[in-house]
Amino acid sequence: MNNVFKILVIDDEQNIVDVVKAYLEKEGFEVITAMDGNTALKIFNKETIHLIVLDLMLPKVAGEEVCRKIRAVSSVPIIMLTAKVDEDNKIEGISIGADDYLTKPFSVRELVVRVRALLRRSYRDVTPMADILTFNNGDLEIDINKMIVKKQGTPVSLTTNEFKVLTILLTNPRQVFSREQLVDKAFGIDYEGFDRTVDTYIKNIRQKIEDNPKEPKYIITVYGMGYKFMSGLFEV
């Protein structure tokens, strides 16, 4: 894996920052650190960041708000660190834009493995069908290589995982995918999430690309089976 990836580590515990930074640099990554949310956002606005490791419990600006602000403008992969272990809190973290999560205390070696896996999923070459797909006379436009989605000409921000789920669906129009199939195709067998997260991704995507998320025209639920993408004719 290319060692030019730049990772932003955000945590208010100095020992965690130091250990994570040391391990990631040993693996060949460039690491920038921040110990509060405000500093983290300033760094993100100035630097080209390829992945973020984000603690939720931060001073000045909470981790959840940092995640929301970054997600409003970028699809950069985010691994969330949290002391909350129940499934609902993990679902909430994914809902606001996290691509993966680890609960504290965590193994730094596991974090490194997850960083590598998420970078591999996020930046591997994707070249299905055509670079730019447009649907319904320009209502929806997706640039596959640049990971840009536009709704009626206005850019919308999808997380890396949301974009991958959308890509699988739209490049296989009318094909029904179960949750398990979407996980396997979008993220690979090394993905350690759970099937219910797919529903969260679909809900978030619909909020961003549908005119009426409660009556979707693009991503259709096939009850008891999964999801499919219905586009009508598309233009390249």
From TrEMBL:
InterPro entries: CheY-like_superfamily, OmpR/PhoB-type_DNA-bd, Sig_transdc_resp-reg_C-effctor, Sig_transdc_resp-reg_receiver, WalR-like, WH-like_DNA-bd_sf
Residue ranges: DNA binding: 130-231
Ranges for domain Response regulatory: 6-119
Keywords (A to Z) from UniProt: DNA-binding, Phosphoprotein, Transcription, Transcription regulation
Residues found modified as 4-aspartylphosphate: 55
UniProt domain OmpR/PhoB-type: residue ranges: 130-231
PROSITE patterns given in the database record: OMPR_PHOB, RESPONSE_REGULATORY
Domain of life where this protein originates: Bacteria
Function: May play the central regulatory role in sporulation. It may be an element of the effector pathway responsible for the activation of sporulation genes in response to nutritional stress. Spo0A may act in concert with spo0H (a sigma factor) to control the expression of some genes that are critical to the sporulation process.
Name of the protein this chain belongs to: Stage 0 sporulation protein A homolog
